[in-house]
Amino acid sequence: MNEKQRLESTQINPADKKSEKDFSKYFQAVYMPPSLKDAKKRGKEEVTYHKDFGISEEFKEMGKGRKFYIRTYGCQMNEHDTEVMAGIFMALGYEPTNGVEDADVILLNTCAIRENAENKVFGELGHLKALKKERPDLLLGVCGCMSQEESVVNRILQKHSFVDMIFGTHNIHRLPHILKEAYLSKEMVVEVWSKEGDVIENLPRVRNGKIKAWVNIMYGCDKFCTYCIVPYTRGKERSRRPEEIIQEVRHLAAEGYKEITLLGQNVNAYGKDFEDISYGLGDLMDEIYKIDIPRVRFMTSHPRDFDERLIEVLAKGGNLLDHIHLPVQSGSSEILKIMARKYSREHYVELVNKIKEAIPTASLTTDIIVGFPNETEEQFEETLSLYREIEFDSAYTFIYSPREGTPAAKMQDNVPLEVKKQRLQRLNDLVKEIAVKKMKEYEGQIVEVLVEGESKNNPEILAGYTSKSKLVNFKGPKSSVGKLVKVKVSKANTWSLNGEIIEEAVGVK
Ligand code: 5AD
Ligand code: SF4
């Protein structure tokens, strides 16, 4: 019996826990901490697809008169998980609220990618402690990637014992059970499966907005780059079936959504786990190309799996946008090797050339880590020279952060933090220099913008993004929100463009 079956077969009678005698039995059932050792395993078991999610009668009244609040950290995958959890809360009868003050349940949906992401969560827990003291009935939960880490769960158990529940990325569909147990139990409920994971379809969700939507196409990652915690926190690669994805995209199109982003930790590995069909991301994009939705993006790509079929399909254009986020991580083949990225600088450049040849308008953005263990000055300079050679539109840049349990965390590191910080600064200066140059080229040009709403700083100004993900602030009528419009760029800033609307509601495709 695996841990999931064991848990599901545990019939907990709430009355049991009241008697001391049976308490240990109950507690055992609600205490299932993560195991890094299990999370590392990759087996040959087929992925099981579940379509039977439903809210059983026993949970239906749980949320009546109660409000929930979810704070999300980290990537788009987490944002989308939050939409699913919000959907489950709503199905349980809870109502959403915009602040912690009047929430009856607060969840922190956490990110484990770097230490500073984790520090933010521990800081927030510090703040919430006071609230929990004031209102002991408040339920406080930690979920997301940090809950998959043994060290985090131990730290919460020891130092933040006021937390009521911890559950993992594979346990989201178990939220009704976890909440019920948390209401009944005086102890912290910990339910984190480290198993490889199935695919659960038909979970409810409340999407954040009516213009853009996330669509998961796959879960997990099998790449095991030596610095990265994701393969441990998100399990093995599991692709959703194409027909499920296509149906979801059709629904979104019918509901009037204008843009979708296909999501996965390594979207280029989409379909590699199918045993019965040979079907990849290129094939999926080719189907989605035919659907009447104006904009389709995908993220995040891994250069190793980015194949010719995908390039060929993207070259068709139409609703498939010409912006590709292609994390390179380093410009040094030696560092790439130690990172276990499984491509060299030369391979990366070759891939970019192929993309640019097939899609001349393509813009590229990337992710870069500086200060990987023992990175030399020369190796870092190779990153700078690659950046100059490719001329990325922009980049997310990070100082390497050791993640417990990953191979890189065990490496000796002779690069002082001060040097890492200087390298980050030097890289950021270059990123900015090239961004300024590229943005300048837009001055006087006409761009197509999907209007998202008022600009952050000025309600008189509207804001939206171009197909290449450039933020555009412009004067225009409020009626254009949710539409694709043409804007003439009057001024380029480093990270945004200013302009004026010249045409409302541009036709699709
Ligand atoms: N330290 C620093 N940056 C990291 N990333 C992933 N793991 C680490 C780490 N341990 C970066 C990579 C990845 C992005 C999402 O986060 O650049 O592409
Ligand atoms: Fe962070 Fe990665 Fe988890 Fe996203 S998948 S929340 S980036 S650790």
TrEMBL record:
Keywords: 4Fe-4S, Cytoplasm, Iron, Iron-sulfur, Metal-binding, S-adenosyl-L-methionine, Transferase, tRNA processing. InterPro entries: Elp3/MiaA/NifB-like_rSAM, Methylthiotransferase, Methylthiotransferase_CS, Methylthiotransferase_N, Methylthiotransferase_N_sf, MiaB_methiolase, rSAM, rSAM_horseshoe. Residues 440-503 form the TRAM domain. Transmembrane segments: none annotated. Residues 1-20 are annotated as: Disordered. It is found in: Cytoplasm. Binds 2 [4Fe-4S] clusters. One cluster is coordinated with 3 cysteines and an exchangeable S-adenosyl-L-methionine. Monomer. Belongs to the methylthiotransferase family. MiaB subfamily. PANTHER family: CDK5 REGULATORY SUBUNIT-ASSOCIATED PROTEIN 1, MITOCHONDRIAL TRNA METHYLTHIOTRANSFERASE CDK5RAP1. This is tRNA-2-methylthio-N(6)-dimethylallyladenosine synthase. It comes from Metabacillus herbersteinensis.
